[in-house]
Amino acid sequence: xxxxxxxxxxxxxxxxxxxxxxxxxxxxxxxxxxxxxxxxxxxxxxxxxxxxxxxxxxxxxxxxxxxxxxxxxxxxxxxxxxxxxxxxxxxxxxxxxxxxxxxxxxxxxxxxxxxxxxxxxxxxxxxxxxxxxxxxxxxxxxxxxxxxxxxxxxxxxxxxxxxxxxxxxxxxxxxxxxxxxxxxxxxxxxxxxxxxxxxxxxxxxxxxxxxxxxxxxxxxxxxxxxxxxxxxxxxxxxxxxxxxxxxxxxxxxx
Length: 254
Hints:
alpha/beta; 10 helices; 9 strands; globular
């Protein structure tokens, strides 16, 4: 654990807080490693019966800190990959509380939570098409599994912003709370879950999740292959250049 991922224990609940509020909790290399270690340790610790994932400050998570990709040695796996696997394979209930911005990886991680509560300020986006990239974290499967194929396709293809009411109506969120009440509500539900025997919770999670795991694995491998093809492609370069130049990207000539 490090200061950018805070961990607190509350009556069988491990609260993990993304803690880079000055960067809207964008996840850098150290945070990916800390997330991997935290979820792996929580899976092995029977005193932890539920995990609550949240973000410090006004936002949940603005996604991957792009600077983290410059810190990885070429040819070595980015720690995002092992962190994603640790979350996918986590065998106990995972509750998430999201407010403000939830973009990219800050959105797709929510699809692996068993229950998601959102604040009224939520603004969620899957920006992959606009970046000339593809989805990640198995989200190309999990979002369909959670909300249906057509709704998922609409969000991926349009890269539109999703507010709290739409997140609730389409099935991404279980409930919408005032931002001021979000954390306490989510923690209360996590504590409610954590009162039950840890092995019963494991078996319930296994029963709910086992049917999805082969499809998630296929989705992750397909996404990784697509990302290899698209990262550094002309459309990806145009998207990043336009972002740096604070203009709309122009894909018409590519």
